[in-house]
Amino acid sequence: MIRQITGTIAARVSVTALNLAVTMLAGHRLGAFGLGTISMVVLGITLLMLAANLVGGGALVYLVPRVPLRRLLPPAYAWVAVACALGYGVLRLFRLVPAGYEGHVAALTLLQAVYSIHLGVLIGQQRIRTHNAIIVMQAVVLLVVFTALLRMPAPDAMAYVRASYAAFGGTVLLSTLAMRDRAPTIAHEGGSVWRTLVQQGLLVQSANGMQLLNYRLAYWLIERFRGTAALGVYSVGNQLAESAWLVPKSLGLVLYSQVSNTAEPERQRLLTLTILKVSLGCALAVVLVLSVLPDAVFRWAFGHEVTGLLPILLLLAPGILAMAASQAFSHFFSGTGRNKHNVIGSGLGLVATVAAGYTLIPAYGLPGAACTASLAYVLNAVYQGIVFVRSVEVRWHDLLPGRADADRLKQLLGRLRERLS
């Protein structure tokens, strides 16, 4: 497990750094408007991925140890094709992405949905190292191709789209070659695979869908009330703040894989508690670093049009810490087949997002958007924390760091030093 954790964190650090490099290049070469256009394209892909992952997606991680791949993959592939075709129509009908980008968004979603299926298989088989290598390679290809395209005369946001085709296509190929069929290791309760995929996928994607709106509904509202350039500035601040989730998401991925492959409640509980505390500590460290950086650093990194990020980062900080904790809770509930609590938590956050977003963003702009996000994230994490405490019968002070955690951390660091030496 130590290797999985360190490898996943290293991969997430690499991917985050590479993606930030893409954002920096876009900010300097395309300006705030170009950043806003790219944000809307990415948001459109993310929106269609919610439907594409309805049959498959995160549900595969839970089912891979229980059902042969030959029964899981065909329905997942079939649904992806249908979802992307329908998604294209939705994008055209409701104009959810900039005009002319609808077909590209649908095609890129198809590629991403296929490789997401494959990566879910790798996680379910606990092949975290292979999974990490593939996602790093994707980020490398995206940056290299995007950099090359930006050197052409008069580049625009289509450079990012073309680079995404190269990165996503390569990931589909690598992930296809990496998959291996293995015999199930945990008994499946039986029944239709389609029904099980849909039941698990519906819960997972309902939670993901509402969480996406918690994350990104503000993007649409900012563009509507403040314009695309303002969205570009906010997207940079949001991306920087969400970098605090780098370690929590890495740990959550390993937790998901471990919990899905064990039926021992005590081990599941201890793993979740440990990862919860480490996640919060790491997220707090990142938030503190970002909060002391001067605005000149951000202008140097992302272009002179990107200013005023510090107030946004400070207002996002409570929510970022809350969602760091939520990473542990969410992956625990998903790994134990209790996704309904993720749905409810995300639903509470969505109610807050809608109510606060339509009030604060028109009145206060980007600071209002940051306050809205923090409120939604905190509500989600508080609900999940209450359910977790009750379901595994722990006391609230067990969520706080203690001597036993310090001892486990020392052991962990010792094993890490041995591995690195």
Task: Report on this structure.
This protein is mainly α and 421 residues long. It has one domain. It is built from 15 helices and no strands. The chain has helices at 2-52, 58-63, 69-94, 102-124, 128-150, 158-178, 193-226, 228-242, 246-260, 265-291, 295-302, 309-335, 340-364, 366-391, 403-420. Helix 5 runs antiparallel to helix 6, helix 8 (228-242) crosses helix 12 and helix 9 packs antiparallel against helix 10 (265-291). The longest helix has 51 residues, at 2-52. The mean pLDDT is 88.
Which structural category fits the helices and strands?
mainly alpha
N-to-C SSE series? HHHHHHHHHHHHHHH
Helix segment tally: 15
Average pLDDT metric: 88
The residue ranges in which pLDDT falls below 50 over 5 or more consecutive positions are none
Basic shape:
globular
Radius of gyration: 21 Å
Please tell me the total number of domains: 1
Proportion in β-strands:
under 5%
Distance between the termini: 18 Å
Major sheet characteristics: none
Helix content: over 70%
Number of strands: 0
